[in-house]
């Protein structure tokens, strides 16, 4: 067994506002081992980004509080870590690729300076060596004229180019884990595939772990080995990708994967992804996190809900090794046709 790069145990996160406190995450547990590709999926507002940002403590200081739980990166406690240790970890051990690179790049600095800054912060090499590495990275990422890209400001590059620059920065220090939060959602559909393939290739080359966040079930089906399905700030089901697509047990998972294709599910899910099939086919909407019901957060939308579902949060039930779901109606769910 390899030790996990990141391990989250029973993490709760609240955002403290002026008038209300929002419980964004409740009892999240997940881990990514070395070289593993894990997916995080769920509707908008389910807590995917909040989970990802918690790992590197990138949430607004003072506003984001962790009343319970633990996060470790390579066995070191993240929630108690001093800022200096967090800065050492960011980029060098765990790097992030965001959906919108414009928000992560500094608009007034040339691309070359931004990439070499990251390299020089974590690796001992000369400015010239760092520039050469930056050029090579951009070349690996199939940027046609890397010298020009290095001299450019972010606004002078296309969205696809900017995302490649972000990817170059993320990979520049050979971190153990890449967290990619909707890395292709903002890109033109024709280059989404290319960018995703590049991320996959680089991860495989370096034997890195990848935590991939995506709305796109097609992308998930093709890319990740294991998946966690989030709903209302909780992981409602987790397991091997094949098992979730073929035997997803939580009524919410079943709703997401409504067609539940068996033979050839990978191709079908992928085709569905390319058609822009989103996760919004379940009637009703995600509950307000400031006003979550006490029991199962999905009960109001669940056709199988009974009074007990609203009493207390359902415990995780193990369905097979590594496959678990939080639902007290699983036995019934199993007998149904899966339509939600
Ligand atoms: N800085 C913040 N202050 C207050 N609430 C926040 C903050 N960031 C996130 N939230 C809340 O936490 C919840 C989870 O948000 P999060 O961004 O993690 O969702 P998500 O699953 O990534 O959604 P999307 O698919 O739209 O990216 C939401 O209800 C959101 O409003
Ligand atoms: Mg998000």
Topology:
Layout: E1 4-16, E2 21-33, E3 37-41, H1 48-55, E4 64-73, E5 76-77, H2 83-89, E6 94-97, H3 101-104, H4 111-122, H5 127-140, H6 146-151, H7 159-171, E7 177-181, H8 189-206, E8 209-213, H9 217-223, E9 226-231, E10 234-240, H10 241-247, H11 251-256, H12 265-274, E11 316-320, E12 323-326, H13 330-335
Parallel strand pairs: 3-8, 3-9, 6-7, 7-8
Antiparallel strand pairs: 1-2, 1-4, 4-5, 9-10, 10-12, 11-12
The structure holds adenosine-5'-triphosphate (ATP) and magnesium ion (MG).
Quick structural summary:
This protein has 340 residues and is α/β, with parallel strands linked by helices.
Report on the structure:
The protein has 340 residues and is of the alpha/beta class. It has 2 domains: 4-93 and 175-335, 3-Layer(aba) Sandwich (Rossmann fold); 94-174, no CATH class. Helices cover 35% and strands 23% of the residues. It is built from 13 helices and 12 strands. The protein has helices at 48-55, 83-89, 101-104, 111-122, 127-140, 146-151, 159-171, 189-206, 217-223, 241-247, 251-256, 265-274, 330-335, and strands at residues 4-16, 21-33, 37-41, 64-73, 76-77, 94-97, 177-181, 209-213, 226-231, 234-240, 316-320, 323-326. The strands form 2 sheets. An 8-stranded mixed beta sheet has the order 6-7-8-3-9-10-12-11, sandwiched between helices. A 4-stranded antiparallel beta sheet has the order 2-1-4-5, with helices on one face. Strand 11 and strand 12 form a beta hairpin. Helix 4 crosses helix 5 (127-140), helix 7 packs parallel to helix 8 and helix 9 (217-223) packs across helix 12. The longest helix is centred in the middle third of the chain and has 18 residues, at 189-206. The two termini are 38 Å apart. Mean pLDDT is 87; it is low at 259-265, 273-280 and 335-340. The structure holds adenosine-5'-triphosphate and magnesium ion. Magnesium ion binds at residues 48-49, 181.
């Amino acid at each position: 067994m390899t030790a996990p790069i990141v391990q989250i145990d029973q993490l709760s996160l609240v955002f403290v506002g002026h008038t209300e406190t929002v419980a964004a995450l409740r009892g999240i547990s997940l881990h990514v081992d070395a070289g593993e590709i894990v997916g995080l999926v769920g509707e908008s507002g389910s807590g995917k980004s909040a989970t990802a940002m918690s790992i590197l403590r990138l949430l607004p200081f003072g506003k984001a509080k962790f009343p319970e739980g633990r996060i470790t990166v390579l066995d070191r406690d993240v929630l108690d870590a001093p800022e200096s240790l967090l800065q050492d970890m960011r980029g060098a051990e765990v790097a992030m690729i965001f959906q919108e690179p414009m928000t992560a790049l500094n608009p007034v600095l040339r691309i070359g300076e931004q990439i070499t800054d990251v390299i020089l912060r974590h690796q001992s090499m000369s400015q010239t060596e760092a520039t050469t590495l930056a050029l090579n990275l951009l070349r690996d990422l199939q940027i046609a004229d890397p010298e020009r890209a290095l001299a450019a400001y972010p606004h002078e590059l296309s969205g696809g180019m900017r995302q490649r620059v972000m990817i170059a920065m993320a990979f520049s220090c050979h971190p153990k884990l890449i967290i990619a939060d909707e890395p292709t959602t903002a890109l033109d559909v024709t280059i989404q595939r290319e960018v995703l393939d590049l991320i996959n290739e680089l991860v495989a080359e370096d034997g890195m772990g990848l935590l991939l966040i995506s709305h796109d079930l097609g992308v998930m089906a093709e890319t990740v080995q294991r998946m966690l399905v989030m709903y209302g700030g909780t992981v409602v089901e987790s397991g091997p990708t094949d098992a979730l697509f073929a035997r997803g047990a939580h009524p919410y998972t079943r709703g997401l994967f409504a067609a539940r294709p068996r033979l050839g599910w990978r191709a079908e899910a992928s085709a569905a992804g390319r058609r822009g099939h989103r996760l919004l086919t379940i009637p009703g909407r995600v509950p307000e996190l400031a006003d979550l019901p006490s029991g199962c957060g999905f009960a109001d939308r669940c056709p199988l809900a009974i009074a007990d579902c609203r009493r207390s949060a359902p415990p995780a039930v193990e369905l097979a090794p590594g496959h678990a779901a939080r639902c007290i109606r699983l036995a019934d769910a199993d007998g149904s046709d899966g339509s939600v």
